[in-house]
Amino acid sequence: MDTGRCRVRAAKYPAKVSSNVxxxxxGPPETRLPADSLEVQHLVGQIVSVTGEASRVLAADAxxxxxxxxxxxxxxxxxxxxxxxxxxAFRVGYHRGLDALRANGWKGSGFVRWSHPGxxxxxxxxLGLQVTAGExxxxxxxxxxxxxxxxxDPSGVPPAELRDSxxxxxx
Length: 171
What we know:
Layout: H1 3-12, E1 21-24, E2 27-31, H2 38-49, H3 52-65, H4 70-78, H5 83-103, H6 120-135, H7 139-152, H8 160-163
Helix pairs in contact: 2-3, 2-4, 3-4, 4-5, 4-6, 5-6, 6-7
């Protein structure tokens, strides 16, 4: 048995106990991602307040500032020129969000609710991915995203203030 290899693996991937996963007697665990910095939130607010090339330039700046932020990738996707650009950015944001969820104790199941501000970027990317998959005719992916959103938050809908800005139409 190669015990040296096991020691290296254990040192490289230490077990992480996260306080961002809450267990309850009443159901699956709930994961809460940390909120983006105020600087990132402000920049995303600027991105959504403008359109066209100005929005894309700000989105590129935001990606350079916080490339691991799903909220930033959502803003980038929202600023895309067409469904292909939007789909690509939402896909990156979705995967960045999965990485963040795993780093915060998510084990592939349990709730990730809209009501927690840190989760919104990831969920918006997943919603954007659902919408743009449908636009591109990838209906099986559209349905998979829809079902995943319902599994993550069975309420099924984002809060009212988030519903009108999941994706921006072609410009």
